Amino acid sequence: MQDYGTPQEMSLADIEAAREEFVTAAKNAIRAGFDGVELHGANGYLLEQFLSPVTNERTDDYGGTPEKRMRFVLEVAADVARAIGANKTAIRLSPYGTNAGTSAFEGVDAFFGELAKRLSELKLAYVHVVDHSAMGAPAVSPEVKKLIRDNFQGTYILSGGYDRERAEKELNEGFGDLVAFGRPLISNPDLVAKLKSGAALKAPDMTKAYTPGPEGYLNV
To answer: 12-180, what's its fold?
Structure first.
């Protein structure tokens, strides 16, 4: 870990530049051969910092009310969708995440329900909701999962500490369309075959996280 400076509130020029950087990155990804991009509005990254009143202390048109806190994310999503196509643009959200000082807040369920509705109007390819409860954060409530499901008309992906049983249960209950597996796939390259057969999964060795070499996990 490295030391870092005290964050400074972005100017309006900074915000405009950041939107352009998201668009440039998306275009570069498509040129490089990717099928699409997933905007990272979770895990305490910049987009989530605007969404959360815990981190967003702005008093201008990008902070304060729920609508203003959504503005930067919706502008970025709209700009990227126009640049590469809405069918190639998606977003990841973590309503109850605790990364980088974020946390659940008053009205969090209604906030993400409305955000899902606004994102759906952009006709994005999918919304990806991550539940960090397996890592100690509060579990994403069934209520907010249902609100997002009801308000977002595209594909809905769930993720975060899922095993086969939990994935099947929530898919059958209509909470989402797909379940994403991260860490289990890293330690089980044959994950799909194991899920189909019901075979036991090998647990990831997190001491190898972000380490080089043939046994290192460079992305967990």
So the answer is: TIM Barrel (3.20.20)
